[in-house]
Design brief:
The chain is 39% helix and 19% strand. The chain has 682 residues and is of the alpha/beta class. Bound molecules: adenosine-5'-diphosphate (ADP) and magnesium ion (MG).
């Protein structure tokens, strides 16, 4: 008997070749198949009389084959199948490419459904490459809303439809994990209905409802996970650090600038959290250059002066070093021992021993902080910079428990995460449901707005001339090369080509260097170091340069293939310049001339800050393109649902209610477990 757990190889229609391809789509059981949702539908639900067909239209006809034949087109190396079909209203020509077997399947005299697009070929209106189905009983591929699935090479939507349709009666085995009262309140379909309707909906409104139910589920499960996490954390103990007003006041007074209001507010929120005997779990979210480091430093100062240890983890050596220098600088009047620990540190054993002995108050480092198996004497504050660069497990690893000397009970360090990725509210609510968030939206005063221009191929030369003048005036420039999906090799090739072009043809008189992910950390470090010291004029780089390195004299940035990046990402790159009193310029080079791309890029020129761009990105490209979101491994439907604020609110309320009323049954518990294994929130 077939059940939801039946392996797909046990279905007769699935042979070894298809099995491999289905596995590639992560489909192993019938249940997996049910949860492989179509991403859209072709609406072939109405049949149109042949006499009413128009060019450009997508239509379904029901007609009889009058004649059908194959022709080999030797010069094009393809087979053309053309047919003449007829219904009561008229006749039309049909053509297919490279499917010669059709002439055997669709024989003269057969009644067929054909769905496809109407085009003109040699001045004759014809139906080209239509989906076909012999007319007999209920249709699967034509004459209805036809599901189109995410597929892989050699596997068609048609094949997926062909195997799913006959199995759909098994949906009655699906047990709904959502408590009834939640379903009723949120007006949701039952799970079995939703599964049926998402695959083969009777009409678009039912398809919509099915999507809603299934999207709700994903959001609900994410939020239940994060809210539960929050609840768990609230039962843990932390060391309360009381607010030391004189210390903070004198520190702020010693700064060469005034804090912005947002910086003040964020610091205040952090001090309040630190004061509690539950661990803080706060995200400091501020645009590039908004001054998050100072805020983190204030928190570090307070904890260290109270006699507890602080650890700050950054994603790269360069950044860790930069933070180390800033902290040393900012805290030079304090009697605190600050250490730097990275993979490249030479005297690791000694540094580690000093941390264990409590001689080090603040340690700043890279992944080494969690890889080196350090035991802290009394770590009470863990800070993570550019937190989206770390996985959840890595973040948790830094927040190691310590055992208090007085009563031997475990306490959990307070956690402050920082990110410069502006996260739209809806996304933050969902993904970071377990975090409290402090926003820094206001930039420090006196920063000049970066002049940003979209440059099409015809204006390239003018921009190069301008850059030449800037560099002659002792400024520096970044050149960012296009993003090449998932291929580091190609990316390096493109950087190398760009480097050669610039250093040989365009700017032979300047000192140019290149930076990419394959370089050893030490090499990267050396290059950044030289760039910082102005021994390099132009730095050609892949997106590795994205994270917050400070190069004050860099006033120009070129972004090649700008249309391939998300708006938020472009904004992040641009944040590398304009850190100085001098006017800075950002050139977005694009070869794309489509209106859509240009409109999207124009948003960069008009948006008031990164948050506005993030919202736009979410609307235009969906959550999937957010830096970092890919790594969560969220299902596509969850991604798609993230721009539905209403659904997010509803699912959040439901998750809270389920927690409060303790409605988690064993079904739901199981579902949660599975869900959490597949995503990486925990
Ligand atoms: P980010 O938020 O991107 O990490 P940083 O903390 O690196 O930004 O700050 C960027 C620069 O702005 C630093 O050089 C810092 O000294 C400076 N800065 C921070 N706060 C202020 C302020 N209130 N006024 C002026 N400059 C500031
Ligand atoms: Mg920073």
């Amino acid at each position: 008997m077939l059940t939801l757990d039946t392996k797909i190889e046990e279905i007769k229609k699935v042979g070894p070749a298809y099995l491999k391809k289905l596995h590639k789509l992560n489909i192993k059981t019938i249940r997996d198949l049910f949860f492989h949702f179509p991403h859209r539908y072709d609406d072939f639900s109405q049949t149109t009389p042949i006499s009413q067909l128009k060019e450009g239209q997508k239509a379904t006809i029901e007609a009889k084959i009058v004649e059908i034949k194959n022709t080999r087109l030797y010069h094009k190396r393809m087979t053309l199948t053309d047919a003449l079909v007829k219904d009561n209203s008229g006749t039309i020509k049909v053509v297919w490419f490279n499917q010669p077997y059709l002439a055997d399947t669709l024989k003269k005299g057969k009644l067929v459904n054909l769905s496809g697009k109407l085009t003109f070929s040699k001045n004759i209106l014809c139906l080209s490459n239509p989906v076909y189905e012999l007319s007999q009983g209920e249709t699967v591929h034509t004459g209805r809303l036809v599901p189109i699935y995410p597929t892989t090479e050699g596997l068609t939507s048609r094949y997926i439809r062909y195997i799913i349709k006959p199995l759909l009666n098994l949906t009655n085995q699906i047990i709904d994990f959502l408590p009834d009262e939640i379903k009723k309140k949120s007006k949701l379909l039952n799970l079995d209905e939703a599964i049926k309707e998402i695959h083969f909906p009777d009409n678009l409104s039912l398809a919509q409802k099915a999507r809603q139910r299934l999207g709700f589920d994903e959001l609900f499960l994410i939020q239940l996970t994060t809210l539960r996490q929050k609840q768990k954390l609230s039962h843990e103990k932390a060391i309360p650090i009381s607010f030391n007003q004189p210390l903070v006041k004198s520190f702020v007074k010693s700064l060469p600038f005034k804090l912005t209001n947002d910086q003040r507010l964020a610091a205040w929120e952090i001090f309040q959290d630190l004061n509690k005997d539950q661990p803080m779990n706060r995200l400091l979210n501020g645009d590039v250059g908004s001054g998050k480091t100072i805020v983190a430093c204030m928190a570090g100062l307070e904890v260290a002066q109270a006699g507890y240890q602080v650890a700050l983890m950054a994603p790269t050596e360069i950044l860790a070093k930069q933070h180390f220098q800033s902290f040393q600088n900012l805290l030079k009047k304090q009697k605190l021992k600050i250490a730097l620990l990275t993979g490249a540190s030479k005297n690791k054993t000694q540094i580690k021993k000093q941390i264990t002995d409590g001689k080090t108050d603040i340690v700043i480092g890279t992944h080494a902080l969690i890889q080196e198996n350090i035991s802290f004497k009394n770590l009470s504050l863990a800070i993570i910079d550019e937190q989206h660069r770390f996985g959840i497990a890595q973040r948790a690893a830094l927040q190691k428990k310590i055992y208090s000397i007085e009563d031997g009970l475990p306490t959990t360090p307070h956690l402050l995460s920082m990110t410069a990725t502006p996260i739209p509210r809806t996304l933050a609510l969902t993904i970071y449901g377990d975090l409290d968030i402090s926003l820094i939206q206001e930039l420090p005063k006196g920063r000049k707005k970066i002049i940003t221009k979209i440059v099409t191929p015809t204006n390239r030369k003018k921009s190069y001339d301008f850059i030449r003048k800037q560099i002659e005036n002792k400024k520096q420039a970044f050149v960012i090369c296009p993003l090449i999906d998932e291929s580091e090799k190609l990316e390096i090739k493109s950087v190398t080509q760009e480097y050669e072009k610039l250093s040989q043809e365009i700017f032979p008189q300047f000192r140019i260097a290149m930076l990419h992910g394959k370089l050893k950390p030490k090499e990267k470090e050396e290059i950044m170091d030289k760039f910082q010291k102005r021994k390099i004029d132009i730095l050609v780089s892949t997106s590795v340069v994205e994270v917050g390195v400070d190069i004050p004299k860099a006033t120009v940035m070129i972004i090649e293939g700008a249309d391939r990046f998300g708006l938020s990402q472009l904004h992040q790159f641009r944040g590398r310049i304009g850190r100085d009193i001098h006017q800075s310029y950002c050139y977005l080079f694009t070869d794309s001339n489509t209106q859509k791309t240009n409109q999207r890029l124009k948003a960069i020129l008009t948006a008031k800050d990164g948050f506005e761009l993030a919202e736009k990105d979410l609307k235009i490209r969906g959550a999937g393109d957010f830096i970092g979101t890919r790594q969560w491994g969220l299902p596509d439907l969850a991604m798609a649902s993230l721009d539905d604020l209403n659904l997010i609110k509803k699912s959040r309320q439901a998750a809270q209610e389920v927690l409060d009323k303790k409605l988690i049954n064993s079904e739901l518990e199981n579902k949660l477990k599975n869900f959490q294994q597949n995503i990486h929130l925990e």
